[in-house]
């Protein structure tokens, strides 16, 4: 048999797995509990919080895609972040996070620091030399990366930070949600752990909430699984089945997401109402060269700056192909105001430090017809540009 790529193996995970009736698509195992042979002898499964065949298929597929151990599948992305923190730290440990990370991640780490579970330091990890120096000084137990970042699409050098983190004794985790595993594989670049909000691109249809953790080494994977079971953060069977179904079309969807995003970037960069466009595919983006090396595409996320809230409101009011909503990575196009929505947990001064301005909008570009999205955005920019400054 010829060698099969990671992507094909992941897409085919679970197919023809059923031995009862020979179904090509795997069945959903919704049973809460499983029969013991005797009180002392259990089968491969006993209780679905601890293990579920459908969830395991999704975990296997994600592990193949990322080149790591089978994923520990969680009920939400933040459940996965919580599992990772408790698995990788002890009270008093130092944790380094990006200064511009996702608002929910910032909130979790900040609250844990306030309760003295950990010592938290936020660092601009996109300045590689300065970040490496800080990691050497701080010697964190956990170094948390997010690249591309949410919502400003900043790029962090995974290989350089992983090397520095390991030299300092840290576990290096990477939130890979924005790129998806078909566009970036952090474990191949030296990371120990990869996080996905599977709610986003992996499921891809905005109808499931979930998260996943993929470890490079078996020992860490076992620790993560222990904590997910102990905390009760593991995902359900139906959600896992739907996410695995969504994953099978991920490569096709990502191509259209990227094609549409690139077309919108052209419109945005030419329009006088736009002060800045944040997209790593632009040659003048500060992380363009790095993204070109460590990613296999620039993705379907972008953000841009308008003059302020009145311009933002004018842009949004009248859109026909974009829904004003949080989340991302679905087939439908979404527009979001990070400062008031996804990053509202951050106080104004923290938002300013992260570069989140009142005029910032984030687009999750869907897979609709390109011309329709271009026309919709262009009309919105004309409305924004007509607002008196």
Automatic annotation (TrEMBL):
Its EC number is 4.4.1.2. Its cofactor is pyridoxal 5'-phosphate. The keyword Ion transport does not apply. Transmembrane segments: none annotated. It is an enzyme of class 4 (lyase). It catalyses: L-methionine + H2O = methanethiol + 2-oxobutanoate + NH4(+); L-homocysteine + H2O = 2-oxobutanoate + hydrogen sulfide + NH4(+) + H(+). GO terms for biological process: cysteine biosynthetic process via cystathionine; methionine biosynthetic process; transsulfuration. InterPro entries: Cys/Met-Metab_PyrdxlP-dep_enz, Cys_met_metab_PP, O_succ_thio_ly, PyrdxlP-dep_Trfase, PyrdxlP-dep_Trfase_major, PyrdxlP-dep_Trfase_small. It comes from the Bacteria. The modification N6-(pyridoxal phosphate)lysine is found at residue 200. Pfam families: Cys_Met_Meta_PP. PROSITE patterns: CYS_MET_METAB_PP. One of its GO terms (molecular function) is cystathionine gamma-synthase activity. GO terms for cellular component: cytoplasm. Keywords: Lyase, Pyridoxal phosphate. Belongs to the trans-sulfuration enzymes family. NCBIfam families: O_succ_thio_ly (TIGR02080). This is homocysteine desulfhydrase. The lineage of its organism: Bacteria, Bacillati, Actinomycetota, Actinomycetes, Propionibacteriales. The gene is metB.
